[in-house]
Amino acid sequence: MREHINYCSNCGSKVTFGPVPDDDRPRHHCEDCSTILYQNPNMVVGCIPIWQDKILMCKRAIEPRYGLWTLPAGFLEFGENAEDGAVRETIEEAHAEVEIKRLFSVYSLPKVGQVYLMFLAELQNLNFSAGKESLEVKLFRQKEIPWDEMAFSAVKFTLEKFCEHQFDSRPEVFLGALQPAT
Amino acid sequence: MREHINYCSNCGSKVTFGPVPDDDRPRHHCEDCSTILYQNPNMVVGCIPIWQDKILMCKRAIEPRYGLWTLPAGFLEFGENAEDGAVRETIEEAHAEVEIKRLFSVYSLPKVGQVYLMFLAELQNLNFSAGKESLEVKLFRQKEIPWDEMAFSAVKFTLEKFCEHQFDSRPEVFLGALQPAT
Lengths: 182, 182
Description:
2 copies of one chain form a homodimer.
Chain A: E1 16-18, E2 27-29, E3 36-37, E4 42-51, E5 54-60, E6 69-70, E7 73-75, H1 82-94, E8 98-109, E9 114-123, E10 134-141, H2 153-165, E11 174-177
Parallel strand pairs in A: 4-9, 8-11
Antiparallel strand pairs in A: 1-2, 2-3, 4-5, 4-7, 5-6, 5-10, 8-9
């Protein structure tokens, strides 16, 4: 979600929204110290953890979408590779160890400023359990996937493409976007 | 690059760096209004514009890496899909019209907080010219690529993978990372 920017993070003065030098779009900027306060979209990184014919999913213990099902995913941190972020989120949300195989889907949510990068991953063992952001973590066969209790459109898109294309020999990356955004 | 955060963007108070509730890592936060000031990595989106057996590249007219060659790419804006950002950057830097075919590479620069998403694209016509951030834009055959005058490691990685794998029938996405970062 776009943050409110009222004050300059550099000098603490009130910021202005409007034209800035050498740019074709208005930005929040500080007239006192000339800092431009960019609002960039964020990356959400996660994975489809596979065990035999099953997928590991997490039931959310936090808002938004408390009680709905998702794949392990969260915001990439500064200092991380995209794929390492997906591994970390899987540990945090499902206490599950995965090995990343490849990027599977890229899904943009322009209105909320997010891009999901979802990786295909192999679950390494069955020692998983709910992390503090999950009520429950569980393996689902494809026919058991809780389509009507899905937390996020990016997760639904990714699982739909997985169900349709998992046996394709060509490892395509699926590009999706939600417009208008949630 | 990680920005300096001295003041709260919400209320203008001095910020503190340290532990915050329900989080396992220290964050910049405001003790007056409880705002957490996250520092997230940014996405750079761009493309490999293909015309027959040639690739369109741009010679940079701005710092960093003034005078070196790059592929058209830049920061994704809030409100854009990833692929639309790549098209926009190609228009801005090379006044070139492209059609995106697929995602080609994802390259992380963890130390500077960037992830490149580079798409394969078809140049639609030869009506290109230098945008204001470019000194020159030019089509290169593979053997003409200026490897010793490359602006960014992500661009070099992407072009190397393109030269090695462009004729593969499997449309794999190449995952790369620079560690330590530039």
